[in-house]
Amino acid sequence: MRPVPDEASVFVFRMWRRAWDSEQWVPGSRLLVHLDDGGGEVPEQLSWGTEDGAQCALGFSPDMASCYGHRRTADGDVVEVRGELDGQRDNGQRDRPEDGDGARGYEFDTQVEDTGGWHPAGRLRVLVEDGEEAPVRWVTWRDRSGNACSVALRPASGSGKADVSELVTAVHASAEYRDAGEVAVNLVDASAGKWFAPQNRASVEFELTEPVSVDRYVLTSANDAPDRDPAAWTLRGSADGRPWRTLDTRSGQSFAHRHQSQMYRIAEPESYDRYRLEITDSNGSPHLQLEAVRFLAEGSGSFVGYRQRTGHAPVAYRGVRVGQASPDIPAQPQPEMVEPYGGGTGFRFKIRNMKIDGQGDVIHVRGGGSHELSFDVLHDCSECGNAVNQVIVGLAGQDRAQASVWNGKQRSGGGLKVVNWGTDVEAMAEDNPGPAEWVNVSCDIVVPDEPGTYSVRARYAQAYQGRLMTAEGRTIPQPEYQDVLGWWKVDRPDGPGPESTIGTIIVES
Question: Which of 4, 366, 420, 439 has the greatest number of CB atoms lying within 10 Å of its CB?
């Protein structure tokens, strides 16, 4: 039995889930857990609920090497869940890794109540990060000494409500249908109808009475015509109307029902008094519509609950947030995917920080369709000579790649250069004489409607033409000729193998 890590650790579990009528376990999002109320014990049992109504309960093995439990999803489905310890991070480690996403933990100054009134009870640190969009609203746990705690988190807004849409004072749209009363202001008026735009690209700007750190937003589908639902958009924030900072980008979205609300999380929220939703595509219609847009305030401002020490009666327990614990609780970085070169002695490129639809490297979806991939590429192949390489992306088991995301010479992160000038394979490429730099790229990938687990993989190609996205954010569209995407099985009859996996999309029935 391995020793249990000390109480300063953040436990990182690799998780799987299984439907009640299935024998197959499928990968799920990782789980991060850190609970410290000063008792110095690791949890034995843990339960939590999220804002969308989902609930989960787990029991941990004595050495914290594994966990098992059940989960009720926001849709009411019940699944089994299990996990294996994938590592632990030192909570005292102050240096946050550059390639990790911040976990959303909280720290509170607490008090307990007895017959003499309220008394200080030290600090409480809570981190339960399950990879879902909706934030945790309550947590209950018991440690191995029999001590128990339960806390219900309250939103950080002044009203104590998570929904801060009431702070919106003005709404402006680039297009609306005034003759029918289907105007943009209806989006924040629950008693009104809907917003309709006679085009499939439109923007809606919301002005608030004061700056608010919105970390989630909710879109609600309208009463009819699912093909008018937004499919792709970008949410931006601003303090003065310029400049605008990109907060969240989505593509391949759909709504299964009418009047359905879907929540989306902003990975790095900041305080703004203007938010703008830029919709760039519908689900097939030349028009757009939405019933409502709501903004939710950041995290938790306080909690109420109880604490019970072994052999004692439970006492009232409350706390006020002193900060978000993410700077002290770094997330476990995803492993890098490496494309080798020279028989394994070097590499052509590396990939890290994979996000699918703005989430992690593993997502669960209902139905197939298009999904946005975003990740970092480091291309550093000093032995590649004068060759121009591409990084192509596709699905395991398919005959061709679906996208080319980088086009360049030996090292990424440089300036633009014309290669093969004056020939029929003339193209723009990155050319960097100095040290290679990480470049963030993105593309779309389409998965089938058939339920299953689809592995997203990457490999190199050498066919000159591709789509270039530079470190400065410039996009140079170029033809994706057959000989680029057709490299998917060159020298690999079965296509890229499991070692080339950069993400997983699980299509549920």
Answer: 439
